[in-house]
Write a structure and sequence with these properties.
This protein is α+β, with helices and mostly antiparallel strands. The chain has 10 helices and 4 strands, in the order H-H-H-H-H-H-H-H-H-E-E-E-E-H. Strands 3-2-1-4 form a 4-stranded mixed beta sheet. Helix 5 packs antiparallel against helix 8.
């Protein structure tokens, strides 16, 4: 039986492979067609790679504390692997999946009919399909009759990538003391807004008005999301603290709504997009 690589190395290769799969998807997504087989053939590489990445990431995480039995070492079903995760790891995975599912649903990112199940357990069980053959069925779906191949939409693939990224983050978190747990989708988007919008906007505002930082106030910059969370900035004694969460209940004076101005900046940047910095 082959030994596992060092967790840091394994996480690095999994992370790189996932990044490359995302880049390929962005350059050449699956194109709609009336023939289902034509669409499945386009998606084949993405789906097979997704299954394999999820399987390897889960096994790598389980191997960290001896939770991967020999009976599952060369099995390919995903749900039995996730069921063996530590309670703390499963809690983070559930939270991050729930956040991604609810945030993208609220924003209308995917067609409602294409959405996968709302829980990560049911999602992985759907991917496994009848008799836990989903991974194998997809692998040979180009030549074998597709009687037991789970039918997966773009939304399924994106949810699967979110699961893979979270599990890779858990491997890093468990392997290195002090390494933070994987961030949820909503928090990552908040950090992207910080880098793509707020940083330059604050620099420009300070240059245009020397008194901009000196007035105590609370400003709303984005939101709300599906949990009534906002991006808001509190200015106090010449300093600014940007937060993502539910607004403070009592503020004096009342919050100032800057979302319209922020939206204009976002529209102008849409014509010249910048990529956020790579995050672990």
């Amino acid at each position: 039986m082959n030994a596992f690589q060092e967790p840091f190395d394994a996480a690095s290769w999994l992370e790189l492979a996932l990044k490359v799969e995302r880049e390929k998807w962005e350059r050449r997504p699956v194109r709609d067609d009336l023939v289902a087989g034509y669409m499945s053939a386009q998606a084949w590489g993405y789906v097979v790679a997704g299954y394999s990445l999820a399987e390897q990431a889960l096994k790598c995480l389980l191997n960290l504390d001896g939770r991967l039995p020999d009976t599952l070492r060369y099995k390919h079903a995903l749900r039995p692997l996730s069921d063996r995760l530590r309670a703390a790891d499963r809690k983070i995975l559930n939270h991050n999946y729930d956040d991604y599912h609810l945030a993208t649903k609220a924003n209308g990112v995917f067609a409602p009919a294409s959405l996968p199940p709302s829980s990560v357990e049911d999602f992985l069980a759907t991917l496994d399909g009848p008799e836990d053959r989903g991974s194998i069925a997809w692998r040979y779906s180009l030549t074998e009759l597709p009687s037991d191949v789970p039918q997966l939409s773009d939304a399924y693939l994106e949810h699967l990538r979110e699961v893979i990224g979270c599990v890779i983050g858990l491997v890093r978190h468990r392997d290195r003391e002090g390494f933070p747990p994987p961030l949820s989708y909503s928090v990552r988007r908040f950090h992207d807004r910080q880098y793509l919008v707020y940083q330059d906007w604050m620099d420009n505002a300070r240059r245009a008005d020397s008194t901009w930082m000196k007035r105590d106030r609370l400003e709303i910059w984005w939101g709300p999301d599906y949990k009534t969370r906002y991006d808001y900035c509190r200015f106090t004694a010449g300093s600014a603290r940007l937060s993502f969460g539910v607004l403070p209940q009592e503020t004096n004076p009342p919050p100032e709504d800057m979302r319209g101005e922020i939206r204009e900046i976002l529209r102008s940047q849409a014509a010249r997009p910048r990529q956020p910095k790579d995050r672990p």
